[in-house]
Amino acid sequence: MPGLFQNVATAMFLLLGQVDIPTIVSLPISLWRVFLLLVWVYACLHLVQRVEVSPLVPNQYKSLLYVVTLFAGPLVFLGLVVAETQKADGSGASAADFLQRIRGAVRSIWKSRKQFVTDESALHLFDASGKELRQLYGHGESQSGDRKFLDLTVQIIDHALQQRASDLLIDPKDQLSYAVRLRIDGTLRTVRELSGETCRAVINSIKAVSSMDISERRRPQDGAFTAKKGGTAVAFRVASAGALNGEKLSIRVLNQSAGQITLTDLGIPDRQRSLIVSAVSKPSGMVLICGPTGSGKTTTLYSMLNQIDRYTHNVITVEDPIEAPLAEASQIEINPRAGITFAKSLRSILRQDPDVICVGEIRDEETAEIALRAAQTGHLVLATLHCDSNATAIIRLLDLGVSPLLLSSGLSLLVSQRLVRKLCKECRKPAQLSPALLQEFQQKGIDTKNMFEATGCELCGGTGYYGRVAICDLLLITEELRTEMAQNGAISEKLKTEGDKKGRSNLKSEALRKVIAGITTLDEIKRVVG
Question: Which of 88, 119, 150 delimits the end of a domain?
Answer without folding.
Answer: 119
